[in-house]
Amino acid sequence: MWIIYVLLVLLASLWLYARLTCGRCVCPRDRVSGKTVVITGGNAGIGRCVSTELVRGGANLIIGCRNTAKAESLKLECAEKGFKGKIQVLHLDLQSFASVRKFAQEVIGISPSIDVLINNAALGVPEEIVKSEDNFEVTFQTNYLSPVLLTHLLLPIIKRDGGRIVNVSSIQHLMGSEVRLAKNKTCPRRIMCFGSFVYGDTKLAMNYWTRTLAQRLAGTGITVNCCHPGFVLTDIFSHSYGNIAHFSLRLLANIYAKTPEEGAQTIVHLVLSRNASIISGKYWSDCAEVRFPRRPLKKSTAAILWRNTMEQCGIEEDDRQREEMSGSR
Questions:
Q1: Which residue spans within 148-286 are E strands per DSSP?
Q2: How far is CA 85 from the centre of its chain?
Q3: Residue 135 backbone phi and psi in degrees, to 5
Q4: Which pLDDT score, from 0 to 100, does residue 317 have?
Q5: Cα-based distances in Å from 144 to 58, 120, 200
Q6: Confidence class for position 243, pLDDT limits 50, 70, 90
Q7: CA distance linking residue 24 with residue 11, whole number of Å
Q8: How far apart are CA 223 and CA 160, in angstroms?
Q9: Residues 98-105: contacts with CB within 8 Å, 24+ apart?
């Protein structure tokens, strides 16, 4: 019987710890009033909560997602509540480079400039290896390659004075491997227990790309940061893991995990915080800058990762673009 009591105390302690250490953004929401924000996956889960917070504050929000019906329902919901901001919904499938390019063209047609780009949409840990129409593992393309391409396409209209790029990462980047990334070994032949490694690679790549992009954007007035929203119970679990692992994870999540509203706080903070307008290339958690959990890549490895990524995304950089990215204009 005492074992049951110990387990109950342990579970209660985990729940209390999760609640007490959950960071909350205290920035005035109206700081985003009148600003144009583009968010991927802003129709569900954490992204939906971020969208709600920003529209409440008066943002002009452009949501890119696959399930546009969910985004339209959010648009109606915000209008009924009398929120000051506006929502425009565009279709976006991050499993397709063609869709990413079409979405970027539509955004540019809608707005001559944007203040914030939030790369939020992601797939969870894959159960099997599936290739996209572009012949990439779909998780790697959705979580990393397509956000990189989208950022590159929208970069010309991101405001040079105070523009922000927010990349949503995960603590699970610790499962990623620099060696796999540098050697383009991010897609195993068999999934087995490697699903977590595939997902981890996507988030590790996003973290390293964030740091490199921040260095290249130095002096432009644009900041780029990545964040860990926390262990959040969202629909992403409905597409991840096998039966036993899935059940165990959901059980733990119901006790320990943050709510989507709590998970949205660090993302919202990076949009609103004045510190985030001068800090770039950093890793954030619970609304605070934290020490990057991994050592920086060697310059040679970072260069290889950047070059591989540009080639995979079909991005060609000329000397002029490199100079503009480094701020030497």
A1: 164-168, 223-228, 283-285
A2: 22
A3: 70, 30
A4: 73
A5: 29, 11, 11
A6: low
A7: 23
A8: 9
A9: 98/133, 100/146, 100/149, 100/150, 100/153, 101/149, 101/153, 103/64, 103/150, 104/150, 104/153, 104/154
Quick one: which of 257, 237, 256, 259 has its CA closest to 246? 237
- Integer angstrom CA distances of residue 314 from 34, 149, 232, 247, 326: 34, 8, 33, 40, 21
278 Cβ contact partners less than 8 Å away, ≥ 6 residues apart: 223
Q: Is 17 a catalytic residue?
A: no
Write the pLDDT tens digit of every residue in 185-218. 555 544 444 556 778 888 888 988 999 999 999 9
| Confidence at residue 253, expressed as pLDDT on a 0 to 100 scale | 58
Which amino acid is residue 89, in one-letter code? V
Q: Determine the angle formed by the axes of helices 299-313 and 146-154, rounding to 10 degrees.
A: 80
Residue 130: what pLDDT? 87
User: Which DSSP category does 289 fall into?
Assistant: E
Out of 16-25, 142-151, 259-268, least confident range: 16-25
As a whole number of angstroms, the distance between CA 16 and CA 294 comes to 28
Which has more pLDDT, 123 or 239? Answer: 123
Catalytic residue among 5, 17, 199, 256: 199
| Structural tokens at position 328 | 């030497």
pLDDT at 198: 77
* H or E element, residue 290: strand 288-290
pLDDT at 180: 72
Q: How many angstroms separate the CA atoms of 59 and 15, rounded?
A: 34
Of 299 and 94, the one with more pLDDT:
94
* Nearest residue to 31 (alpha-carbon basis) of 6, 4, 11, 58: 58
Judged against a pLDDT cut of 60, whether residue 246 lies above it is answered with no
The closest alpha carbon to 314, from 109, 185, 150, 199, belongs to 150
Domains of the chain listed by start with CATH number: 25-313 (3.40.50.720)
4-13, 65-74, 88-97: least confident range: 4-13
